[in-house]
Write a structure and sequence with these properties.
Strands 7-6-5-4-3-2-1-8 form an eight-stranded parallel β-sheet. α4 packs across α5 and α5 packs parallel to α6. β1, α2 and β2 form a beta-alpha-beta unit. The chain is globular, with a radius of gyration of 17 Å. The protein is built from nine helices and eight strands. About 40% of the residues lie in helices and about 15% in strands. It binds pyridoxal-5'-phosphate. Pyridoxal-5'-phosphate binds next to β8 and α9.
């Protein structure tokens, strides 16, 4: 077992959660924004279920998973609480059925085929599946996400299905974290909202860059390491 998987006590998780909320609050103040506009997604990939349950008991209700097989096992063993599940990992066509049936959000939609599959596989008795389109804003070849120019067609397709709900866009920042990338995302978000008023989610910012992301309008930050991993194992500010 690597050190990053060493379980934290509830008290340690509480401290980590409070620290993140504090960072979000300070970043919001710095950006002259209301903290109420910004929500926190706990990224729980590779984290034990017990850790997630502790975090849930501390008030964290939304969790992001990247792998369907891992999510399946966790969801099977955790049916007692109304957790808000977000799928944020690379999407394969043969996994859409499970995701359409067991998640409330999918943030990594980046091609048309996935949209029609998710729409046809979403059970009719369930609320519409919330969708963010992932944009490969840094144009790195190893990364998922569509090109910025492809957003409009994909958005239109999502909006055409009554059991999908277009909520916004998602990006994974590059290591260099160029400010032009954040700027472009902010601009795309604003244009998308102008065209689709229900769009309210700019999902951007992780442990290392949540402050910058909030400065550029992020409404949802996705935090893994700084919540779950021992702090000394991560970047030292
Ligand atoms: C792992 C992951 C995160 C969390 O990153 P941390 O640096 O651990 O905060 C956020 N978003 C996506 C899509 C991820 O895969």
């Amino acid at each position: 077992m690597t050190e990053s998987l060493a379980p934290k006590s509830t008290q340690q998780l509480k401290t980590a959660l409070e620290r993140i909320h504090k960072r979000i609050q300070q970043a919001a103040e710095h950006a002259n924004r209301s903290v109420d506009e910004i929500s926190l997604l706990a990224v729980s990939k590779k984290q034990p279920l017990q850790q997630m349950k502790k975090l849930y008991s501390l008030g964290q209700g939304a969790f992001g998973e990247s792998y369907t097989s891992e999510a399946k096992e966790k969801q099977y063993n955790w049916k007692t609480d109304p957790v808000e599940w977000h799928f944020i990992g690379p999407l394969q066509s043969n996994k859409t059925q499970y995701i359409a049936e067991h998640f409330q959000w999918v943030q990594s939609v980046d091609r048309a085929k996935l949209i029609s599959r998710l729409a046809s596989q979403r059970p009719p008795q369930q609320a519409p599946l919330n969708i963010c389109i992932q944009i490969n804003i840094s144009a790195e070849t190893n990364k998922g996400g569509c090109r910025p120019g492809e957003l409009w067609d994909l958005a239109q397709q999502v909006a055409s299905h009554s059991n999908l709900r277009l909520r916004g866009i998602m990006s994974i920042g590059s290591k260099q974290a160029e400010s032009s990338e954040y700027q472009q995302m902010q601009q795309l978000f604003s244009l998308l909202h102008a065209r689709y008023p229900q769009v309210d989610t700019l999902s951007m910012g992780m442990s290392a860059d949540l402050e910058t992301a909030i400065d550029y309008g992020a409404t949802l930050v996705r935090i893994g390491n700084d919540l779950f991993a021992p702090r000394e194992n991560h970047h030292c500010a």
